[in-house]
C-alpha cells in the first residue's frame, strides 16, 4: 500500500492521546508500584487493537511480561521489544509539571517514562491502529513488553528461553533509537554489556575517635586505595589483568561507521556542564567498542551536617563496567576480584547486582540494511549507523536464543532527559518516527509477499 507521509504523521499527532493513560500509570519497578495496573492496561489495549493473543506471562518469576500477537498480510513476522517500567520521578521539586500527568508544552510531551520508553511503544501502538484503519498490517507483529528493565531485566533470559515457540519471528525491533546531539537519526544494531556490583570493606567493629587515626586503620582510605589500585591515574587504563583481552576489533565496515558517527565535543561539554577534559581522545570508538570501570557512588563514616570526628569502621562503593561484545560480565567481575586479592585487598567484599551481555547484529545483515535504507529516505542522507549503543539492555537472548537480527529505532532525541526530571520527547519526532516505522513495516511486507 502507498503511505502518505503527511497523513501518517497527522494521524500520529491526533491519536497519541488515545494512549495517554499509559503515561499516567506510575509503573516504578524499583518501588514495586503500578506494575499490575500497567500490565493490565497493556493487555486490554492490545485486545482493543485486535490482537489475536494478548496475555501476561508470570511463569518465570519477577514482574509479568506482556505478550501480544497480530496477524498481517505477509508471512514475515517482526517482534517488538519494549518495557513498561520507569525510573522513580525524584527529585520532584525539579519537575515543572506533575511527572505522571502528561503535559504538552512548546511542541514537547513531558512525563516520566515518555522517552524511556513508553513513548516509543505508544508510537508503535499508534501505527498498529493506523494500519487497522487503512487496509491492515503489512506483516505479522509480536510484542514482548517487560516490567524490570530499570532494575536489570534479570528474568528476561528465562522468559525468552521458556517461550521460544511463541516468540518465533524473522527480526526484532528494539526500543531506544532516535536522534543524536546534532539531530541526525541513528539506526543502532546492538548494546554494550554491563556488570554492576558493590564493594565493601570493614576495618573495625565500631567507628573510632579520630584522635586515634594515628594508629587505627581507616575504612574510607582503604577503600579508596583499593579502588585506585585498579586504575592507572595517568592514562586512565584499567590495570586489571586480562581486563581488555576478550575485546574483538571492529570490522572494517564497523570502523568506517564509527568514524562517521557524529560527536561534537563542545556540544557534549555544554550539554553535561563538564568541568574537566574528556578522559579519552577516541570517544566514538570507546562508546561503541570500549570498556569502563566506573565508580557510581561512595559511602563512609559520617556524612551529615556539622562536625563528627571519627575514623569510619566501614566503607562501600557502587561500581559498574560497560562491556564490549564478547566480554562476559561475570568473568570481568571475577577478574576484578582476583586483581584486588593480588593487590593486597582480599578483605574487600564484592557483591554482584546486575549482569547483562553485550550484543551486536552484523552490519551487513539484510534487516539492518533495510532499516538503514528506509531511514535515509525518511530522515535524509545524514542518517548514521551505530554498531551498538553505549548503554545496555537484555538484547543477547533475542539475538542468540531466538537467532534474530536486532535494530533499535525510536522517537527520542539527545536532550530528552531519560531518568531525569522533565523527561520528554518532541512531538515532531513522535510523528516522524511513526511514519518511519509504518514505512519500514510496509517495505518489509512488500518484499516478503
UniProtKB/TrEMBL annotation:
InterPro entries: Cyt/Met_Dipeptidase, Peptidase_M20, Peptidase_M20_dimer
Keyword Hydrolase carried by entry: yes
Residues in Peptidase M20 dimerisation domain copies: 190-342
Keywords of the record: Hydrolase, Metal-binding, Protease
Alphabetized SUPFAM superfamilies for the sequence: Zn-dependent exopeptidases (SSF53187)
UniProt keyword Hydrolase present: yes
Short name of one Pfam family: M20_dimer
Annotated protein name in UniProt: M20/M25/M40 family metallo-hydrolase
Amino acid at each position: 500500500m502507498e503511505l502518505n507521509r503527511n497523513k501518517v504523521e497527522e494521524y500520529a499527532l491526533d491519536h497519541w492521546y488515545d494512549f495517554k493513560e499509559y503515561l499516567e500509570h506510575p509503573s516504578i519497578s524499583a518501588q514495586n508500584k503500578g506494575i499490575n495496573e500497567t500490565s493490565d492496561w497493556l493487555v486490554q489495549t492490545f485486545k482493543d487493537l485486535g490482537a489475536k493473543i494478548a496475555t501476561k506471562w508470570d511463569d518465570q518469576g519477577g514482574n509479568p511480561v506482556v505478550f501480544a500477537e497480530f496477524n498481517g498480510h505477509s508471512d514475515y513476522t517482526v517482534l517488538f521489544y519494549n518495557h513498561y517500567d520507569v525510573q522513580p520521578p525524584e527529585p520532584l521539586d525539579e519537575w515543572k509539571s506533575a511527572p505522571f500527568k502528561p503535559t504538552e508544552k512548546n511542541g514537547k510531551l513531558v512525563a516520566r517514562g515518555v522517552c524511556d520508553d513508553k513513548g516509543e511503544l505508544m508510537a508503535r501502538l499508534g501505527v498498529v491502529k493506523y494500519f487497522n484503519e487503512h487496509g491492515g498490517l503489512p506483516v505479522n507483529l509480536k510484542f514482548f513488553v517487560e516490567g524490570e528493565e530499570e532494575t536489570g531485566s534479570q528474568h528476561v533470559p528465562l522468559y525468552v528461553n521458556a517461550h521460544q515457540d511463541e516468540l518465533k519471528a524473522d527480526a526484532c525491533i528494539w526500543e531506544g533509537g532516535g536522534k543524536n546531539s546534532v539531530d541526525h537519526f541513528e539506526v543502532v544494531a546492538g548494546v554494550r554489556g554491563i556488570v554492576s556490583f558493590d564493594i565493601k570493606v570493614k576495618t573495625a567493629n565500631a567507628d573510632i575517635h579520630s584522635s586515634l587515626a594515628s594508629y587505627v586503620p581507616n575504612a574510607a582510605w582503604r577503600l579508596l586505595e583499593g579502588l585506585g589500585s585498579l586504575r592507572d591515574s595517568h592514562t586512565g587504563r584499567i590495570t586489571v589483568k586480562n581486563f581488555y583481552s576478550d575485546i574483538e576489533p571492529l570490522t572494517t565496515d564497523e570502523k568506517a561507521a564509527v568514524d562517521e558517527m557524529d560527536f561534537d565535543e563542545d556540544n557534549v561539554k555544554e550539554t553535561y556542564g563538564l568541568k574537566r577534559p574528556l578522559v579519552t581522545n577516541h570517544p566514538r570508538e570507546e562508546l561503541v567498542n570500549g570498556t569502563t570501570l566506573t565508580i557510581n557512588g561512595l559511602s563512609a563514616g559520617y556524612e551529615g551536617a556539622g562536625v563528627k570526628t571519627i575514623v569510619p569502621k566501614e566503607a562501600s562503593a557502587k561500581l559498574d563496567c560497560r562491556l564490549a561484545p564478547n566480554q562476559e560480565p561475570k568473568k570481568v567481575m571475577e577478574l576484578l576480584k582476583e586483581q584486588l586479592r593480588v593487590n593486597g585487598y582480599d578483605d574487600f567484599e564484592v557483591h554482584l547486582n546486575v549482569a547483562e551481555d553485550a550484543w551486536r547484529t552484523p552490519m551487513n545483515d539484510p534487516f539492518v540494511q533495510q532499516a538503514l535504507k528506509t531511514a535515509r529516505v525518511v530522515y535524509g542522507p545524514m542518517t548514521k549507523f551505530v554498531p551498538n549503543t553505549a548503554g545496555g539492555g537484555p538484547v543477547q537472548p533475542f539475538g542468540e536464543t531466538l537467532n534474530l537480527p536486532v535494530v533499535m529505532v525510536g522517537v527520542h532525541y539527545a536532550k530528552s532527559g531519560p531518568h531525569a526530571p522533565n523527561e520528554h520527547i518532541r512531538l515532531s519526532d513522535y510523528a516522524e518516527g511513526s511514519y518511519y516505522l509504518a514505512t519500514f513495516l510496509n517495505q518489509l511486507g512488500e518484499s516478503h509477499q
